[in-house]
Amino acid sequence: MEGDSRNAPVWVTAALIAAGVLCVAVAVVYFVRPASQLPSFLPGHDVALTRHHVTHGVGMLVLAALCWVGAWFTTGSRTSRGGS
Questions:
Q1: How many Cβ atoms are within 10 Å of 12's Cβ, its own excluded?
Q2: Which of 15, 33, 19 is nearest to 61 (CA)?
Q3: Which residues, in sequence order, are bridge partners of residue 52?
Q4: pTM beyond 0.85
Q5: What's the rounded Cα separation, in Å, for the pair 55 and 35?
Q6: For every one of its 84 residues, what pLDDT tens digit does the chain have, with 9 covering 90 and above?
């Protein structure tokens, strides 16, 4: 059975891909909106600031890449440890 030979269930791979897409979307928000216009639930929201949080955006892109690398690792097949 193909599902038994995977490193992780399919839902884990799908969740990591979705998390990566969400991280890219948040990164775009950090790049295009100044700190005063960020949603209040995002870190870095400050009404007094007019600058963009570029480092927050880069951090979100790094998290997206890590999610996608994790998803890639979950698609591999298990190797048998039995020796011959």
A1: 15
A2: 19
A3: 34
A4: no
A5: 12
A6: 444 677 889 999 999 999 999 999 999 999 999 888 888 888 877 777 777 888 999 999 999 999 999 999 998 877 766 555
What secondary structure letter does DSSP report for 3? Answer: G
Sequential DSSP letters for 36-84: GGS-TTSTT--TT--SB-HHHHHHHHHHHHHHHHHHHHHTSBPPP----
What the block records as the tokens of 80 is 């048998």
For 78, residues 6+ apart whose C-beta sits below 8 A from its C-beta are: 5, 6, 7
| DSSP for residue 33 | S
- Are residues 23 and 66 in contact, defined by beta-carbon separation less than 8 angstroms? no
Token code pair at residue 54 = 């570029």
